[in-house]
Amino acid sequence: MDVSALQKIRYTYKPKLPACLSQNIDNISIEFGVPTESDADQQDLKNLFKHSYGKPLATFVSGKNDTIRRELKVGVILSGGQAPGGHNVIAGLFDGLKKGNPASKLYGFLGGPSGLINNKAIELTGEIIDNYRNTGGFDIIGSGRTKIETPEQFAASYETAEKLGLNAVVIIGGDDSNTNAALLAEYFTGKGSSTQVIGCPKTIDGDLKNEYIETSFGHDTACKTYSELIGNIERDANSAKKYWHFIKLMGRAASHIALECALQTQPNICFISEEVEAKEISLSRVVDQICQSIVKRADNGDNFGVVLIPEGLVEFIPEMKNLIEELNDLIAGNEEEFAKKSSFIDQLYWLETKLSIPSYEFLNTLPPEIARELLMARDPHGNVQVSRIETEKLLIGMVEKHLAKLKKEGRYKGKFSALGHFFGYEGRCAFPSNFDADYCYSLGFCAFVLIASGLTGYLSSVRNLVKPAAEWIAGGVPLTMMMNMEQRHGSKKPVIKKALVKLDDRPFLTFAAQRDIWAVKTSFLFPGSIQYFGPAEVCDQTTKTLMLEKS
After folding, report:
1. Containing domain of residue 54, as a range?
2. Would you say residue 396 has pLDDT above 90?
3. How would DSSP label each residue in 385-441?
4. Among 463, 488, 513, where does a domain finish?
5. In a domain? residue 92
6. Neighbours of 509 (CB within 10 A)
7. In angstroms, how far apart are the furthest CA atoms of the chain?
8. pLDDT value at position 478?
9. Is residue 418 part of a domain?
10. Average pLDDT, integer, range 50-75
11. What is the CATH number of the domain that holds 416?
């Protein structure tokens, strides 16, 4: 296939591994810790995961491993949204399998979890793998958002594993996908199957993390990609000096992307959804905060600026959050009836007697185009499709109205012209940074060692990531350790708990200590493009967030 000059060069990049995985493969053993507990809802989860709850942490150490050379058949799935580095996870898994035993085979399930359910797979050969090393995207086998949740789907997955004689299935995905991995591991074990299930932590949102999963892969690259674009816009704003840019950033439940991009680029304003929720900041107060910066900067002759908005901000604004929760539960419980309301007006009439009075009144204060977006078809988990709500346009419109009021009162004398942007898909399939290329390859190789050692129901773990790759610590985290029970489709279900921005941690506190200055004084940083070649302090570093967390 045709490839760019950069792609040719990236094929030759040799990812770095932790020292524990770089040694003679026969000397990679596992040290187990104490049994683990889930984040919450321990008894409920013990009842649901009778065969897999409470497993110990696993860390790779030097020692004899009698099983690492056995011949294996492994299937791999890319699940959910794309994230830079997925191809390197598969490459690391493939190389580990072949290093353990050249006769081992790796099968790629096509189109995500549905490939396992429907037994659609291809054998991944060295020739195929070599065409995707160190490249972005999930196009090697494709991805999908099918959830394995019905008895028929579990049975079909089991049948596929038995037909192919799989020793293991590796699921590369985010919190929902790895919840699937935990359920599948429990099901296989309960059926007496020898097929193991291992997960790998993927999501650019950065919300799949804990002490042992320091970051999810793809987050570093996506933040670097968005920060380059934000820096370019800041440079343009500072040159033209006439536009306010409202930039919505991907990241629904957590604001890790927005926070990292703010630390990298120092915009005038950046909202952190978790703070908005904690302080119960209303929509009108959000608008006030933006207008205060605009007015103060206009007084200095600066009629331009940059505002960063997390994709999920609307779900954290109290009145909007209440409305969305009511809508999600209401529509989930009356799906067929609501689907018959074909027009927006019919939907509003239907909702009038079913929503609480405050929520219905708030819905009617929103611009019609935003209200329509709130009522669109739900995502596979029964939630509003937040990425399709144009929060940047909502805020621009409300800011314009408020500034017009301030101008009429003589409290604002500037000029306001705004442009809206949404940075999301631009970052999901970028060439992985050196950090993500190394991290992902290590996660894949780590998954192989977990499989060869006979483990199931674990998430591949590589930590100590602020150090050089040779000092990284590899092992596995029990999937049930990361779970709790949450309301989904109107009932309680086990899910991996999302890790939100912590308002008392160094990354947020560092941002909070500087934002009042940024709001008034032009303090833009221009990080530039991702660097692949050059000194390690430029090319191989992870996110500012992680460095602050571990400092």
Report:
1. 18-204+434-488
2. yes
3. -GGGS-HHHHHHHHHHHHHHHHHHTTS--S---EEEEEESHHHHTSPPPHHHHHHHH
4. 488
5. yes
6. 12
7. 80
8. 98
9. yes
10. 97
11. 3.40.50.460
- Please state, in angstroms and as integers, the Cα–Cα distance from residue 48 to each residue in 44, 93, 168, following that order: 6, 30, 22
Is 374 within a domain?
A: yes
**Helices 86-100 and 434-452, interaxial angle, to 10°?**
40
* pLDDT at residue 328 is higher than 90: no
215 within domain boundaries = no
3-state DSSP assignment of residue 278: helix
Task: Residue 161: name the closest of 138, 137, 192 by CA.
Answer: 192
Instruction: Answer yes or no: are the C-beta atoms of 361 and 320 closer than 8 Å.
Output: no
On whether both 114 and 256 belong to a single domain, the answer is: no
Q: Would the pLDDT of 204 be above 80?
A: yes
In angstroms and rounded to an integer, the radius of gyration of the C-alpha atoms of the chain is 24
Mean pLDDT over 124-150 rounds to: 97
| Nearest C-alpha neighbor of 84 from the set 178, 185, 215 | 215
Exactly one of 95, 175, 176, 205 is catalytic; which is it? 205
Residue with tokens 């991907």: 250
Q: Where are the alpha helices (DSSP H) in 66-118?
A: 86-100, 113-117
**Quick one: tokens of 454?**
């006979």
Position 382 pLDDT exceeds 70: no
For residue 489, the model assigns a pLDDT of 67
Is residue 326 scored above 80 in pLDDT? yes
Task: Assign 3-class secondary structure to 285-320.
Answer: HHHHHHHHHHHHHHHCCCCCEEEEEECCHHHCCHHH
**This model's pTM is above 0.70:** yes
- Residue 438 known to be catalytic: no
